[in-house]
Amino acid sequence: MEIDYNTEIQRYTSDIWEQILGLEVTPTQESFNPAEKGITLVGCVQIMGSWEGSVELLCPAELAKKAASIMFGTNMNETSQEDIKDALGELTNMTGGNIKSIIHDEDQECYLSLPAVAESDNQMHVPGTREVAKATFKHEKHLFVVRLMKKIDKKK
Amino acid sequence: MALNPGDFEYISKIVREQSAIVLEKGKEYLVEARLTPLATSENFKSIADLAQQMKRDVGGKLIAKVVEAMTTNETSFFRDIHPFEVLKNTIIPELIQKRESQKKLSIWCGASSSGQEPYTLAMLLTENFPQLKNWKIDFIASDISTEMQKRCQEGVYSQLEINRGLPAMLMVKYFQRNGAQWQIKPELRQMIDFRILNLSGRWPLMPKFDLVMMRNVLIYFDVPTKKEILRKVRENLYPDGYVFLGAAETTLNLDDKYERMNFKQSGCYRIKDCL
Amino acid sequence: MRALVIDDSRAIRLILGQVMKKLGFEVVDAGDGQEALNKLKSDGPFDIALVDWNMPVMNGYDFVVNTRKDSQYNDMRLMMVTTETEMAQVVKALEAGANEYVMKPFTKEMIAEKLTLLGLSPE
Fold it and tell me: Which of A66, B44, C39, C76 is a plausible cystine mate for B39, CB 3.0–4.6 Å?
């Protein structure tokens, strides 16, 4: 069965933000333009095994802070960098884990790396990969992006 | 959150106009229970504030959320667990004994919604009573909504739904993954005849039942309709059959021909003097 | 009743810990499988452990395998709470001795319903 990755990414992402954070996020056609919006963070998990690539969550620092303050039950102004990294890392892990489950054959194993979180200039590019799906979401004034990157098969 | 009579009247009117669900006096608890979470998540201090805003809700977005909160069925597999334990430990073994000579059982789930209850029952039967394999099982599950009937037949659930109340062991055994969705295996789907039926309307001709599940649906109807439904359930029940209502529901003051059986939190009834 | 919450994310430890406390459990947490095994040694068996899968040092699957090797933890319920959602992973965890499985993202209701299935009813 052909799976529409974008639709599934939209569903998983909405579910995660709703269930864990209680925030409503909606898919949008607007384009995410981080350069003009201050610091952007990126959470990334690698997928290894029968399907190789990564899942990235690009998120404005301010929105990541809001997510962290909800998860840790703290005020926005007392939310630490460590809290933000932890929260965004876990959101990325959940997104990546769910996406992983639909991209590989059931009889072959696939593994998920631990999440990494860094500041991004949006041009963060993992060499040797190409984008296979991308969905942009809106929460209030913030936009964020989930990308699925696949390792390019050198044999071809 | 408390609810004042004026707001209750207003909310009932809106819900009735948009969904045909009647919230007569005495249903204040239902409105409070369903709308308190919504009021909190929408940052209202009270249901009164929420109602105020509804009156100014030109786009109807808030009203739509209120109607949805009042009408969506909170449901899970093995919902409330106790009735299913009673079924497994007492009722089904008893019915098997009573119907041993005919080898025939008939079951009706009267408000199957998205199918969790009938499928829970189907799993419970298959898992615990392998002898039923050679029996004739008439298993009807009905709902008022065409969409729900279709959903039930497909038996497809999202990850969020599959996470609710379903033992992992049964998920592994009776579901298959279909992309991002989880689908009940065909052998279970084929056990159940899913139909459309409006409990408050005219009922089609149905067989007599050994077991009727009518849980958490009577709350949606006014008293005369509740009485009518309970009477018709009785007429469609074998004299020694069983009816399950929701744990908080009762036949008291509605139909005195039922008696509640003494199982903890299970809402199990039978017809008086059935023995 | 006592619960051991094992997850490498502090946020999830906090959220799951709060859920369990609300359901009447005393909660201890650990950031990986090895730390959790150490807590078992120092604190004795718990009624239940909620176990993430992907963690540094020792993952949740290995924690389950290790715990099930030791008969003093036979009665302890092990419930995976993880973003691993393939059917094969669920089967693998159950075969290793996990009693229940919750796929992330979770809600308080999901956790409560699964605890009821395990006979650890909040009421």
Answer: B44
